[in-house]
Amino acid sequence: MSPAAVDHDDDPVTAEYDVFITPELEEQIYLLQYPNRGRDQPYNERYNSKPVEVRMKPNTGFIEVDVPMNVHANYDKRKGVKWGEAMRKAQDGGESAFGLAAGFSGLAKNAVPARAGAAASRADIQDMELEEDSVEQLLQRFDDANDKGHVLNKQTLGGQIMKDETGKPIYMLGTYRGQELHLTKISGIVQMRPQFHHLDAVRELANANRRREREAVEGARANEPRAVQMTIKNEDGDSAQSKEFLFRAQEEKWTKLRYYDEETDEAFETYHEKMFVHDTENTAKLKSSMTNEQYLDAISAERHDPSGRSKKKPLTKKQMQRIEDSEDSDVGDDDHEQNLATQEEAEQAA
């Protein structure tokens, strides 16, 4: 059956668009995906969840977004105070990042201020325990504690940028204007998932307390000489690269970004300026360097025959059309010969 004879009535064409590709931008465009958030609840000002801070580590490719939480509805205030205090102490101790974005680095030893002598170290631990007892006081004046940063009142979402790689798909953003589709290449994709920095802060502070307690008990033996046995381990390339990457992530500082809500004038202005081709009349037309058959061969998986025999390549549309035309001509020749034979028999009978 020829391609023209195929019935496409069950899948009709409903619209056609002229496709344009926007020029390369000086700015970088990243697509932030929120797989744990429904599309009917976007993070914006209309839904009272406008991000309060966006930060990025451009070299190692980490992005984090802080979104506010309603601490007066469906919220455990006791846990909010405990986790908020842990985050505050960690930040006061100089910790600005947690988890993979921080290279899995532990909390600095100065998270609990050091003092001279073992007795002073024990006092530090007691102070930490006394602050745990102050949770009830913070709960009694919860609103004031929330305003002063003692309550975990924001959620952190984060991820790592997935950039273009050779042989991988190239992603683009599409915007419509009338019968035009404008495509803009994106610099990378980030899947933003909840980060549990507050739990990291609790764990690291507990480790700091145990370290201080151990130093208080074993402080007299800290300067005693000890036998050390050196061993050398051969590390493979992947392990060395992972360690080097974690070190760079730990050393790199956060770069804070300015956030504009999607319904602000600045957002609309940038959208219309960057996401469309303005002079569509004089835009150069795209020309493919491949034929249809070459494109199909390029995207098709290579076929292998277990017997080792080579398989024939699939026929092209032109080859199939020639075969159909030749079959039609053969049928016509057979009918012509049959008509001649019938005519000769009639003449002999006459």
**How far do the termini sit from each other?**
44 Å
Annotation, overall tally of beta strands: 11
How many distinct helices? 9
Across the major sheet, the strand order is 10-5-4-3-11
Structural class: alpha+beta
What is the percent of helical residues? 25-40%
Order of secondary-structure elements: EEEEHHHHEEEEEEHHEHHH
For the largest beta-sheet, the strand count, sense and barrel status come to: 5 strands, antiparallel
Outline: elongated
Overview of the structural elements:
The structure is a single chain. This protein has 350 residues and is of the alpha+beta class. The protein has a domain of 220 residues. The strands form three sheets. It has a five-stranded antiparallel β-sheet, with no helix packed on it. It has a three-stranded mixed β-sheet with strand order 1-8-7, with no helix packed on it. Strand 7 and strand 8 form a beta hairpin. About 7% of the residues have low confidence. Keywords: DNA-directed RNA polymerase, Transcription.
